[in-house]
Request: fold
Amino acid sequence: MDRHLIIKTRDELLRLRINNILYLEADRNYTRLLLTEGIQFTFAINLGRIEEMLNKQTAGSHSPLIRVGKSYIVNKNYILHINLPKQKMLMLVPGGKPRELVISRDPLKMMKDRLEQEALAGTATPTPSPAAEKP
Reply:
């Protein structure tokens, strides 16, 4: 089932499939949102408030959108490359052009570590216990 993020302002309502969000970027009291199709929106809502909306609307489910530092919420499904020394993250959607984000080293390292942990958790196969092998 598709999950959606609803963003409401005084004059607008936007209903977005969460999987179609590439990233959200802080710009002072505004937030710039980029969809996987290349469509861009700007809201007079700060990123912290958008994050609160996201957490409230996706409570109890695993969202691919993750806060990275002070300036971004990214969709981890579209991360292609993380370069810690250059402090850059490359986002890519199929058929789209790559987007390069400049992110501070510490939040970028936390994202890299998180993705590594998720990869290990997804590929790790549990070792059967000797008790489970007895007939």
